[in-house]
Amino acid sequence: MKKCCNDFLMEQFGDPDVVKEIYEEYAKSMGEKITEGEAALNAMEWTALEHMAHAVKGNALATGDNDVANVAIALRNAAKLTDKDEARLLLDKLKELAKEI
Predict the structure, then answer these.
(1) Domain residues for 44?
(2) CB neighbours (10 Å) of residue 65?
(3) Is 40 in contact with 54 (CB distance < 8 Å)?
(4) Model-level pTM?
(5) With CB atoms 3.0 to 4.6 Å apart as the test, which of 40, 41, 76, 80 could cross-link to 45 if both were Cys?
């Protein structure tokens, strides 16, 4: 578990079992969202990519993972601008960050 997330979630909930459960759900959802993002980007479905990035941002902020949240915000902006190259770079960055979760 990333230290930033553990610290944030422990401050919020104070129960290691609850923190573990929330974090496991976050990790699972991250994998699902990245798969969705790949499909959306490959199909150039910009609205779907924007929604995926928004969901990732919310999940990341809810667990204290500001690095992921910041990349998700940038990805959402790239999707709004239909910038495929920037969106690819940011989605790849999200994949790298997801490996740390």
Answers:
(1) 3-98
(2) 25
(3) no
(4) 0.92
(5) 40
Integer Cα distance of 74 and 84 in angstroms:
12
DSSP string, 31-91: HHHHHHHHHHHHTT-HHHHHHHHHHHHHHHHHHT-HHHHHHHHHHHHHHHTT-HHHHHHHH
Number of domains within the chain: 1
State the amino acid at position 83 in one-letter form: D
Q: For every one of its 101 residues, what pLDDT tens digit does the chain have, with 9 covering 90 and above? A: 999 999 999 999 999 999 999 999 999 999 999 999 999 999 999 999 999 999 999 999 999 999 999 999 999 999 999 999 999 999 999 999 999 99
Q: Are 29 and 52 in contact (CB under 8 A)?
A: no
Q: What is the CATH number of the domain that holds 59?
A: 1.20.120.160
